[in-house]
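User: two proteins, same treatment. go.

Assistant:
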Amino acid sequence: MRAVYADRYGPPEALVLAEVPRPELDASAVLVRVQAAGLHVGDCFTVRGRPFVVRMETGWLRPRCGIPGYDFSGVVEQVGDAVTDFQPGDEVFGYHPGTCAEFVAAGNDKLAKKPRGVSHAEAAAIPTSGLAALHALRDVAKLQSGQSVLINGASGGIGTFAVQIAKSIGAEVTGVCSETNIELVESLGADHVVDYTKADFTATAQPYDVILDNVENRRLAEVRRALKPTGTLICNSGTGASGLAFWIRLLQPLILSPFTKQSLRRYISVPLRRDLEVLGELVDAGKLKPVLSETHSLERVAEALAKLEQGHTAGKRAVNISAK
């Protein structure tokens, strides 16, 4: 099969389009002919192997997979002997390492039926970012109807999903973005939008029940002053710091949280079928719409990753893939 591949960590331009073996299918897996892959900034980390902590998952010295991408949408080609929930021909979307390829063999519990009414490219944009938003708001913040939530980075991959999920819960949503993306964030349902180039969201007179900070471009003390005394701050960015600064930023809220009434949290989003199904139901109900800034061909994956590294991508980037 064709796949974008690199046998060592490095910049996106080191990736090449190569012929690699199709993945083997075990009893509990589903072989999917990939129609589209979704990309997010975390894919840049796994390609470069930085920050170094990502190598705990991807391989210490060399990438175990070598094919970028974790999100996909496609058509079931074959199922393992123990799989009873899917059959060849089903349209599915889900999560698995190495999705910038013509085939993936995903675990039975890491995929779900593709939502109706969206393209494969749109469906491929959902899993990682949509699940991160869902887990942050539903599980970590336990956001309730009527509560106020501020989403920093509201026009980004996670932010565009978070705005819509928060509105589906019934929260009052404030999104923070640049002037260029105000119209987009408003179209997603945000009640208020703060242009960070003209206003300071941490200087609000009305503090929030929940803040989901997908950018972490402000000091922790500054963000906390925009949070209610018993509110929840979810820190959720892996960019913008390296070395000792990375570890300080990573650990500071966790160390401080036990000593304040405010809940300062980080979290890990684990992809599971039941939560992919929740997102699919929201899409089918018209409450969730993936935002795509651009789609790329398999030959242009390196370019897509480079653009993600530059920042300011509105929504997600996707890769259109057609198996031979």
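Protein 2:
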Amino acid sequence: MAEPNAKPPTSTSPWAWARVLYAVLALTVFAFPGGLVDWLDDRNADGWLSAPLALARGVDAASTALGVKQIGQRLRGWFAAAIGGEDA
């Protein structure tokens, strides 16, 4: 029986890079949801961002419930101390 000529995806594939990019963005949003909520809230003067803002607030609540938000806060504090800034 002959094997099919299927090639595995390479690391130079644009789809592989897109998956990595979106995975990192999703992890960032889940680890630092407060920043996203603040950013969306600042730009929601016209109400166009109500749905994404509600979603970000839900992610913020889930992140807090799971304990991921506290890890993000510690990392942000560590980074601020490393660069000599203040953690807001």
